[in-house]
Fold each of these.
Amino acid sequence: MQLIDQNTKKIMEGCKERARSFGLDVPNETLEYIVTNRDMINLSPKVMIPTLYNYWVNDVEVLKESGRYKLYPSNPYETVINTRPPISFYNDNNPDWLNIMIFYHVIAHIDFFRNNILFQNTWNDDFVGKALADKRLIESFRSRYGRWVDYVIEFARSIDNITGYFKSLPKLNLHKEQEPGEKMEYFINIFLPDVVKATEVEVIKYIEKYNLLVESDKDNADRLFFADIKLRFPEFDAMFENNYVDSKAEEDIMEFISEYSPFLNKKENQWMKSVLSIVRETSLYFAPQMRTKIMNEGWASYWHDKLFISDDRIKGFETQYAKINSGVTSISRVGLNPYAIGLRMFYFIEEMADKGKFYYDFQKLTDRDKRSEYNKNIGKGMQTIFEIRKNFTDFNFINIFTSQDFVDRYNLFVVGKRLDEERGVYQYYVKSRKAEEYKQMLIDSMTHPPVIKVNHDKTNDENLYLVHEFEGKQLYKPYIADTLIGLEFLWGDQVVLETTEIRIDKENSDENETKFVYDKVLYSVKDRKVTKTKL
Amino acid sequence: MKKKTTKQNIDISKLSQSSQDLINKEISFSKTLSHRSVNTKKKNDLIVNGLYEINDRDLFISLNKEDFKVNLFTIEELLAKDKQREEDGFPRRIRLGKYIKPIKGSQEKIVVVPTTTEPKFYHDDSITEDGEENTGGSGDGEEGEVIGEQQAEPQEGEGEGQGAGQGEGSDHDLIEDAFDLGKVITKKFELPNLKPKGKKLSTNKYVYDLTDINRGFGQYLDKKATIKRIIETNIMLDKLTPGNEISPQDLIINPQDQIFRILSKEKDFEAQATVFFVRDYSGSMMGEPTEAIVMQHLFIYSWLMYQYQNQVNVRFILHDSDAKEVPDFYTYYKSNVAGGTNVFPAYELVADIIEKEQLYRDNNIYIFHGTDGDDWDEDGEKAISAVRRFLPYISRMGITVAKNSWGSEDRDTTVEKYFESSGLLKEKHDLIRMDGFAASQGTEDRIIEGIKKLTS
């Protein structure tokens, strides 16, 4: 791994200038490295962060990938990591013109990382540096506690996909003194909705009342407010005392375990909390990336295309470029390509906005011809896509803009897969060309980890009671037992998971219709033995 | 060339007391650094390193045992770590997989790699009300139009019911699962009497040997080969005349003529084995006996798959009143028939295969037979003589008798009787073992215990 040579760097600085003239936000300091395929294989299990902590699962991955490479060599073109300053990697087999195309792609990613507000929690971090500090800490634990460090990493990682990323967001913009007190927070967020079953309107009335008190008498507001509450809900104080859980620990299971686990709270086990926190922070760091995959790749593809074509320095490589570009952004007959969908979506939105099609005048038109001819020439396209790259995530990007016009425009459809039993083949067929169904298909393919919460009433030092909120999908069964064993280790005693499992109702199903039975089940682990009972 | 380190031997006894004190103090300080460059062997025989002997690199490495560089584990280290997990009471996580690249006209390339999974709470997309898997597509085509096909895995009747005839999953899945299962039970036993036979290359074991030849430099000078080359060179240079005496000082020696041996990684040879699975699939086996036998053979098969990977050839034989060989474990596992029972055709088939294919030459041979003990051939004369035929070739035969509840749960079955009376079990205790139990008691633990008995 070495820094890119000065000549290429100079060309890249030229790229930055051109990108800036189009409004992209690129910092002066960026780092570019030339890497070999071997480096790529070594780095990819560490999500390309060279300084990420060592962990045996990554080693397994590296060995596996190098084995695969022996049989099926491949050259990944580039990769970029979101850190300060931004770092990108270029394959040493790339020709120069390709590196320029890639650099335009990278510039757009950097712009996206720096501006999309979902990434706000990462804006101030030199993640590579932070990871190095974490890595050193973990190494120092390793020299003291040996393999137990790896177990703790493993068990922490077993719940790092269900971290409460969105729950951690609202506090990001809150000033320390703006944060409501513990009592108020419990009253508004838990007591009113869960205990009193108050409606939203009622909750807002309480908030307004509280705000009025703060305005008139800041110092005594709390006391006055809760004196009144005590009259109305005499049980409140006692409930608060018994049930209050630190809101930080409310964010996800990992925080809760870290805060309340009797095992981790033992003096000799305190170090484990640091490991948990490292694993959690790392996971949170990548959370926005996972939720902006279509947009981020679409945005980068949009810009590398636009900027590369307009760059006069690479005349003569148009055909080679076209070949690679189409490989990256072509939309396949069957399958999903986030680059292709995202790119087309940005083109589509830009055109809609240029023609003024986001205005109500257009929206209310029903005549097909009039709709397609509609053009107010207001030229707001560029401004609109910049706004979108700032304020949207994959979910609302797709949910809002996947219209029938979009689906028809690019000839998209949902592909179904069914079994032809007589001929023993799976058939892929055009299932639907309806925008609603296409949209749903895209949304279903997005990251959506299961929601698993702690049941505070049933949880105590001897028992951690988890509840999986069923959303139509069961948990992947083969992993449940192993995950629970890890959690038992972290909690230091029995762990219970309440979940729902689906099975086919054989008696009531026939060829045309499959019926399902939903079983509430309880998994519990004690002394590393997992048992399952029906509820 | 090993670099010699310069060390000074200092005799301090002649120095003044204050100088001696100072030097001793220095030495005791340096000891607290836990640094290995200062030695006090004897009281007055001090070895003190020179000023430039201590450097950052050595010092920091000795202070920090952990290497901050990328310290990748090898497959062997990872597996050792995985074994440690088991001792710590956590399930094993690493399994060996392989990438296979089929190449036209030659043997496929195989690379053995470790694989692992990280269990987490994930949504299971396989069972939902939506039923079908959807993805995106683009291009022409009416709704409902088929745009592509893909060969489906063989479908089997679903069901959790009894017997080997039913089951879920495809062949492929079964082998994947077998691998997993093998991983779990692999620690519990190993093949008995395994002798080094055969010439099959190991895929993941290596030895280091001085086998590679290199000119000019290397680890070990091959004198004979070197002299040959020197003489060749000198003949070419007309330095030698045939018939005349050779005087070594007249020879011109080109440095490139020195032939060295270099340490090289060589694939190791591993003992090879052939395992016969023989199963009674007659009518009387229906239900519990079949379940017990099939489960036991599945365990053994899984374990072999995991532990011995490419070193084991497996043959499957089914018999009722007749015997036949089936191609794969899947068929072996699933087949069911209702017929009478004769054991001897199966044994004869095994003996025939061993003799015809001369398997005994390169293979350790193991036979696992599962039956309910029923045999229409009461005295078992033919069966025993077939056993005597193959007994000299084999390393172990294990017979499992899973007795039917309605028959003779606590009495000896026909098969047990004639094996007993033949005296083979005692006479050839090292080669043949038998384990009988009531099929209704065929729990997982009992079955694993059975495997232990058969392979111990």
Note: The radius of gyration of chain B is 34 Å.
Amino acid sequence: MRIVPAVSAVMALGLSLGASTASAQTNTANITARAVVQAPINVTANQNLDFGNVFPGVNATIAATAAAAGSFSITGQASAPAKMTFTLPPTLASGVNTLTIGTWTGYWNTINSQVGGTAFIPSAAVTPGTFSATGNMFTFVGATVTPPSNQPAGTYTGSVTLTVTY
Amino acid sequence: MPRRLLLLTMLSLGLAGTLTAQVTLVGKRDLDFGTVMQGVATAVAPTDPVRSGWFEGVGILTKKIRLTFTLPTRLNGPAGATMPITFRTTDGVAQDGVSGSPQLIFNPNVTTTFVLNTNAKYWIFLGGQVNPSPVQTIGSYTATVILTVVVF
């Protein structure tokens, strides 16, 4: 079942079949080409999620609504829905040593405030959000670190990545 | 005599029928670029199973079909805004109207002829590219793509 191109034969065949043009049939059909233009999304890391000093054997939690929460500001299409996904580290690292981090919490708002917004659980799954009428959105993240009693001293870090799409 | 007249009438109708084989062409799917960003060119491949434009036609087995697209150069948006759209030389794909059959790439910017040598039904797919400027007006843009097919 094949369609065979016959581009080079177009003119010659068309002329030779001129006597039978009454059998040629023409059809026309339309489709629409469409696109929706939106403003690009920009995500900016505003503040690191900072646990400060933690102690071996003592869990430490920073709530998403706390002053020490990590925060991102996002700009995009005014009033448009957005999809947030997070890449979250299971541990923080200090050289070869690691510190477990988890129990992530999130909070998003259309203004730069941790009041009056929406709480959520950050994850690789999509969290829906909405840009404000001026095209702004703010996201805050918190978590818990659980250092065991033999946790080596050091400065532990990890990266939290927020991806936002329409 | 009446019987002979009836026979002639039937014969006449039969001959008329063989001269009026119908060909059809319908637009099955719009060419949909979806959401595009200001300043970011966005292309849809003709093989895209969701976003490519799609026409379905029925011709006549062993006959030729001559395809001519009337392609827009701009999409029309809000308040008179326009956005450039282009069609590359590989943005046309022709295929028998059977899933999985071989696909032939062609240039939709020029008239192209194919022979329907194995199947009267055929599919034509169309890709393209939109080129929004960095300050492209936000909103929905559309234009009409016309495909004219001559079966001969």
Note: Chain A has one domain: 42-165.
